[in-house]
Amino acid sequence: MEQENQHPEGPPRKKARFHVGQNLTSLPYDILVNIFKHLDLKTIGVCATLCSTFNNVSKDSSLYQKVTLKYNMNKEFLESFVSKISYPKELCIEYKYFDNHSDNEDYSEFDKYVRIALTKCGEYVQSLKIDSCRNDDILLLLSECTNLKELTLYRCKSSFQTLTSISTLKTIKCISCHFPQKIASEVIKNNPTLRKLHLSDNTNVNVNEICENLSRSNEQMREIYFSERKKLRAKSLRTLGRLTKLRSLALVSGTGFECDPEDSLEQIAAGCSKLERLIIYGWKEINDDNLVPILHMCTQLRELDLRGLNITIRSCREAALALPFLRLMDVIKCHRVKKSQLAKLKQDFSEIDIPLE
What we know:
- The structure is a single chain.
- The model has no long low-confidence stretch (mean pLDDT about 85).
- Helix 6 (about 75-85) runs parallel beside helix 7.
- The chain has helices spanning about 1-5, 20-25, 30-35, 40-50, 50-60, 75-85, 110-120, 135-140, 185-190, 205-215, 235-240, 265-270, 290-295, 315-320, 340-350; strands spanning about 65-70, 90-95, 125-130, 150-155, 170-175, 195-200, 225, 250, 275-280, 305, 330.
- It is an alpha/beta fold and about 350 residues long.
- The protein has 15 helices and eleven strands.
- The chain is globular.
- It starts with a helix and ends in a 9-residue tail after the last helix.
- About 35% of the residues lie in helices and about 15% in strands.
- The chain has an eleven-stranded parallel sheet, covered by helices on one side.
């Protein structure tokens, strides 16, 4: 009877204790690096203090492919962080923004580490974003980014002298920047590989000259977004019709914006017949007569944003009938289009997303 009550495989074993740190540090180096890639910078810094293995992993350059430097980062953290950066592909630099531009804050310490990062790693950076920088010495270091593909400048002011030396850009995005006269146009002209261009609310940007430069130097353009304040001439708009590979075009009216389109939109449609996305926002000069012809030429359109135009439900219905791939049509703020008419159109063409408000 005693033998029957005994465990057939001997006495039960005690459960092994699970030591997280001990088990993790025994993992292969490559696996630890992959684990660290899912952690934020602060957590990586904490892990680096736990043991020598984690400290070594925290220095792996692959963890710092996407780097962000912020003006309010701790000095000791910045020093340690910048020392670990070797081959970043994406670099974001953020200064403090003041609405009234009375920036009296001392950035000298932050500038020091930004300068080190750009000088040390600039040649490896492919995507660079700079927010609210007004230090010309820092922005002149753009010349260190010799393989730059994407550049985003947000609320920056500078002479931008070295910007014209860059010729590798595929994407340029400039918002609320203050450029010297002619600089923006020169940058466009010097980057024949440009594919995407976004210009919004900048100072000293001549969109007419940029349109003409694009038509001469950037025939491979895919996406254009213009939302500038200066008057856009129909003559300059027509030149965009030469960009036959254009897939996305946004023409957004800004404060004081004026433009008599004449036949410019029809010329663009004739040349850019493969457009998939068209945004014409806030142009009160555009009505059914100068819009409907475009709809019959750009038959590949999938997205149509016509907010604030002087069109009627006629253009909306024509778009729904003429565009077989259309999936989104936004005509909010078109005062001649009634909500009840849109509701009926939405019912008739259920495959198209038509916002009612």
